[in-house]
């Protein structure tokens, strides 16, 4: 069922990864642009696979957890890169790239909450039969 609320949260996380890739065009130092492009493609594939795994809720939770881990690594990379720029982090001048990873992590956590809620609902209905 694609019309569930967790599908919307996962889709928002995928859009966050896309916006991150669109805004992070200045990562030429240490192959940063390549790292961001690879992680974005991986996050999009995991998100779409998670959306279409709605019948297997355990797999959906696992894919979301993997996406959260990749987003956390990407967030760490972005913060490390921004700290090594001259002048440190000042968001109006340097960019808002880490914000998109944080938004994606929050959306995936909310999606996992709703997937677990659906799992509890299905188990409670199975007990009644």
What features would you describe in this structure?
The protein is mainly alpha-helical. It has one domain (5-121). The protein is built from five helices and no strands. The protein has helices at 5-23, 32-51, 57-84, 91-94, 97-128. Helix 3 (57-84) packs antiparallel against helix 5 (97-128). The longest helix is centred in the C-terminal third of the chain and has 32 residues, at 97-128. It is elongated, with a radius of gyration of 17 Å. The two termini are 22 Å apart. The model has no long low-confidence stretch (mean pLDDT 84).
The number of helices is 5
Work out the number of β strands: 0
Low-confidence stretches: none
Q: Share of helix among residues?
A: over 70%
Biggest sheet details: none
Q: What is the element string, with H for helices and E for strands?
A: HHHHH
Question: Would you summarize the structure shown here?
Answer:
The chain is mainly α.
List the topology elements.
Layout: H1 5-23, H2 32-51, H3 57-84, H4 91-94, H5 97-128
Helix pairs in contact: 1-2, 1-5, 2-3, 3-5
Task: Considering the chains and any ligands shown, give keywords for the structure.
single chain; 129 residues; mainly alpha; 5 helices; 0% strand; elongated
């Amino acid at each position: 069922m694609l019309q569930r609320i967790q599908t919307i949260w996962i889709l928002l996380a995928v859009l966050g990864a896309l916006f991150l890739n669109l805004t992070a065009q200045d990562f030429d130092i240490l192959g940063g642009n390549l790292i961001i492009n690879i992680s974005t493609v991986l996050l999009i594939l995991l998100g779409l696979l998670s959306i279409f795994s709605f019948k297997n809720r355990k797999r959906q939770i696992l894919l979301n957890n993997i996406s959260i881990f990749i987003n956390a690594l990407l967030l760490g990379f972005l913060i490390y890169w921004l700290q090594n720029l001259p002048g440190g982090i000042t968001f109006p001048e340097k960019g808002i790239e880490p914000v998109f990873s944080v938004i994606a992590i929050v959306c995936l956590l909310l999606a996992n909450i709703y997937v677990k809620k659906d799992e509890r609902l299905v188990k409670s209905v199975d007990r009644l039969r």
